[in-house]
Amino acid sequence: MNAQLFEALQLLEKTKGIPVDYMIGKIEAALVSAYKKQFGNTNVRIDINKTKKDMKVYRRRNVVEEVTDPDTEISLEDARKLSKRYDIGSVVENEIKLKDFGRISAQTAKQVIIQGIREAEKDNLIREYEKKREEVISALVSRRDDNTGDVWVDTGTSEVILPRSEQIPGEELYVGDRVRVFVTEVTKSTDNTPVITISRVAPAMIKRMFEQDIPEIADGLVIVKNVSREPGSRTKISVYSRDEDVDAVGACIGNRGTRISAIVDELRGEKIDIIQYSEHPEEYIAAALSPASVLNVEFDGERSSTVMVASDQLSLAIGKEGQNVRLAAKLTGFKIDIKGTKEA
């Protein structure tokens, strides 16, 4: 039985990543609990030998002149009946056979061990997701609530809820769909259960997707400077190259637009403007207002600007419901006031 137990512990370590030493600690605690349940005290020593694949339980009693607690003490006279070497202050140990443990005690031990396994699994799950925090991972939709629109996705590690509020507006996800999600947060509940928060609307998801899908960004030749996003509608992302021979915008678009098309498809058709970043604010702001053409940029204060465009470019620069200028302002960090030539 002991050999089978150690084989089971090794299998746990191999399949679930729960260390043998961790489980041995839980087994020791379980045996102490079982002993207390059976005999009423915890003055016990557990000896678990991994090499010999053996475990033993010893009842411990202190040698005293006068016994006041028979469960934890033994008189010198009785101790010397067992061995002449005992003296006051010595500890007498008697082995308790595991088969002597009653059914209730065994059940107590079993519960402690099972709880130990569950806690270890939770800890492993948290550590696994900690590695994925602020990363984009692939997942498979496994369940859907038709009333709320919430879905559950299988990440390969566990099943995690993707609330409707964290889905791209307008998209409908169904069981069997494969999607990419962004791990925003990893926390613990009061009972130590992992709480994983994922999203498809976080602006940081766009940056991570570009870093994963564009080799020049993954290699560090092209850098993503900033992202502004209105999920399901439009995103602006600014990039620059650390190598003068590498076109940052062209690298992101790819041959015939294949690279950017793959990202747009994953985002259910969300438009993406790739902006050339510049250290010169007037150039950066002009580029950020793409696809509109800018005539001039003047600065009214430290973070405030007035942009001049041709009158026929005014509505394009502002965008539908002000979206284009709003995203440009978020991207650059400047307040942008747009004027047409006729208005000026």
What value does the average pLDDT take? 90
* Multimeric organization: single chain
Judging by the overall fold, what is the CATH architecture of the largest domain? 2-Layer Sandwich
CATH class of the largest domain: Alpha Beta
Give the total of beta strands: 15
Helical stretch tally: 11
Q: What would your notes on this structure say?
A:
With 344 residues, the chain is α+β, with helices and mostly antiparallel strands. 36% of the residues lie in helices and 30% in strands. A five-stranded antiparallel beta sheet has the order 7-6-5-8-9. Strands 1, 2, 3 and 4 form a four-stranded mixed beta sheet that branches. A three-stranded mixed beta sheet has the order 10-11-12, sandwiched between helices.
Spell out the blueprint of helices and strands.
Elements: H1 2-16, H2 20-39, E1 44-49, E2 54-64, E3 73-75, H3 76-82, E4 91-96, H4 103-130, E5 136-144, E6 151-154, E7 159-162, E8 178-188, E9 194-199, H5 203-213, H6 215-218, E10 222-230, E11 234-241, H7 248-253, H8 258-266, E12 271-276, H9 281-288, E13 294-301, E14 304-309, H10 314-318, H11 323-332, E15 335-340
Helix pairs in contact: 2-4, 9-11
